[in-house]
Amino acid sequence: MNLTFFDQFSSPSLMGIPLILISMTFPALLLPSPDNRWITNRTSTIQLSMINLITKQLMTPLNKKGHKWALILTSLMIFLLLINLLGLLPYTFTPTTQLSMNLALAFPLWLATLLTGLRNQPSASLSHLLPEGTPTLLIPALIMIETTSLLMRPLALGVRLTANLTAGHLLIQLVSTATIALFSTMPAVSLLTLLILLLLTILEVAVAMIQAYVFVLLLSLYLQENI
């Protein structure tokens, strides 16, 4: 039984070919295609307004130097948002439940923000490793602690996203399995679990959106520290 619960997190394949790349590129099909006109229909209007809102929210904590990252951060936000939401559909696969993929997104972007700070303001970036007024005896220990916490940032980004989505998918599968199993024996209880399943699905939609936002927002805050 436990194996079947976790089968949904295994990467699907067809004739030995992994289909994770197809599931990652599928969200691009939902974006509007280039056109000579700025606004073609209501769908593109809604999409452009959502992109504008996301960009404003992500660029608020950044100064003008950080606005160069607007395209990268906004694209990442839309990518994660679409993948997380599409993964809630039946018979689909969510690539962001794979820790390897989340780390592959988090580590290069975190490293880019760190290298940006070391290049533009090395003294200010290194000063984060040692708070002002630290006693001399505590300097080596604090440097090691701050360096460890700095190196744990990309791991925390990937694990947070993976854990939240994995837990939500497992809860949905457990409740849906209980709903089907109880339908023939206890219909009243089955209807109650069905109501819980609907509420849980709504909650997971919110979690999918919030986790995509938190992932990119933390990257923007790391960027702000280094610019």
Describe what this molecule looks like in 3D:
- The protein is 69% helix and 2% strand.
- The protein has 227 residues and is mainly α.
- The protein has one domain (24-226).
- It has a two-stranded antiparallel ribbon with strand order 1-2.
- Strand 1 (13-14) and strand 2 (17-18) form a beta hairpin.
- It starts with a helix and ends with a helix.
- The mean pLDDT is 82.
- InterPro entries: ATP_synth_F0_asu, ATP_synth_F0_asu_AS, ATP_synth_F0_asu_bact/mt, F0_ATP_A_sf.
- GO terms for molecular function: proton-transporting ATP synthase activity, rotational mechanism.
- One of its GO terms (cellular component) is mitochondrial inner membrane.
- It is found in: Mitochondrion inner membrane.
Spans of at least 5 consecutive residues whose pLDDT stays below 50 are none
Average pLDDT, all residues: 82
Instruction: Give the biggest sheet.
Output: 2 strands, antiparallel
Number of E-state strands: 2
- Portion in beta strands: under 5%
In percent, how helical is the residue content?
Answer: 55-70%
- Regarding quaternary structure, what we see is single chain
Strand order of the largest sheet: 1-2
Q: Would you list the SSEs in sequence order as H and E?
A: HEEHHHHHHHH
Shape label: globular
Over all CA atoms, what is the radius of gyration?
22 Å
The span between the termini is: 50 Å
Structural category is mainly alpha
The number of helical segments is: 9
Transmembrane segments: 12-32, 69-93, 195-223
Membrane topology: Multi-pass membrane protein
Protein name: ATP synthase subunit a
Family: Belongs to the ATPase A chain family.
